[in-house]
Amino acid sequence: AQSVTQLGSHVSVSEGALVLLRCNYSSSVPPYLFWYVQYPNQGLQLLLKYTSAATLVKGINGFEAEFKKSETSFHLTKPSAHMSDAAEYFCAVSEARTGNQFYFGTGTSLTVIP
Amino acid sequence: KAGVTQTPRYLIKTRGQQVTLSCSPISGHRSVSWYQQTPGQGLQFLFEYFSETQRNKGNFPGRFSGRQFSNSRSEMNVSTLELGDSALYLCASGRGSGTGELFFGEGSRLTVL
Fold first, then answer.
1. Subunit contact A43:B48, Cβ cutoff 8 A
2. Cα separations (Å) of A46 from A4, A39, A113?
3. Would you call B38 an interface residue with chain A, using a CB distance cutoff of 8 Å?
4. Do residue B103 and residue A46 have CB atoms under 8 angstroms apart?
5. Which of B31, B90, B98 sits opposite A44 (nearest CB)?
6. Closest CA relative to residue A47, chosen from A13, A82, A87
7. What is the mean pLDDT of residues B73-78?
């Protein structure tokens, strides 16, 4: 069975500091991994995805994530936090064989301190 | 290109009632998934429909049901509402393969009193 663990339900960073949001997954087959962002009272927006191409994936708004198979991790980073990055971030995994059934982590709320 | 549209955005029901939520996917997308989001449980998968057939189902009681029409629009229904059903219900559309991303609507926020 697949699962996703996001370490840290709340993360606070200063504006301009590095953002690091952690995600570990378990999957019995090569996974497809995603990071989504959710702003208040809105749906989820895709930040980036890994689908077995390059292990370092670049997404929107300056975010990137690196797939590390040996560590079963897919951590999300951004070199310099902006106030507009404050939101809820979700890591998700899916397998092609299960169609579009995604498994989401519990989310990490990012606060950016001015 | 229009995004995923969910209606209604907000609704209030009382225990025992039933509710129907609607989702119009992005044009050309044949897969529609439904998720329940609550502060305590996070995002939980309800079910996925692809070409009018339920392809995957999560661990929810039979009170939760859905369907998909020939134009890919989908509805989900919750019968005999309970207080614990209060949540944000998110619909997501996709091309149908797990390798592709899901595109989410803004959700229907259900409050059960």
1. no
2. 17, 12, 24
3. no
4. yes
5. B90
6. A87
7. 98
- Return d(Cα A77, Cα A11) in angstroms, integer: 12
**Residues B33-63 pLDDT 10s:** 999 999 888 899 999 999 999 988 999 999 9
Nearest to B43 among A51, A90, A96 (CB): A90
Write out pLDDT tens, residues B3-40. Answer: 999 999 999 999 999 999 999 999 999 999 999 999 88
Task: Give φ, ψ of A86 to 5 degrees.
Answer: -65, 120
Helix (H) or strand (E) holding A79: none
pLDDT, greater one: A88 or A101: A88
For the CA atoms of A38, A44, A45, A48, what is the dihedral angle to 10 degrees?
90
Cα separation, B74 vs B6, in Å, equals 10
Residue among B42, B98, B103 minimizing CB distance to A94: B98
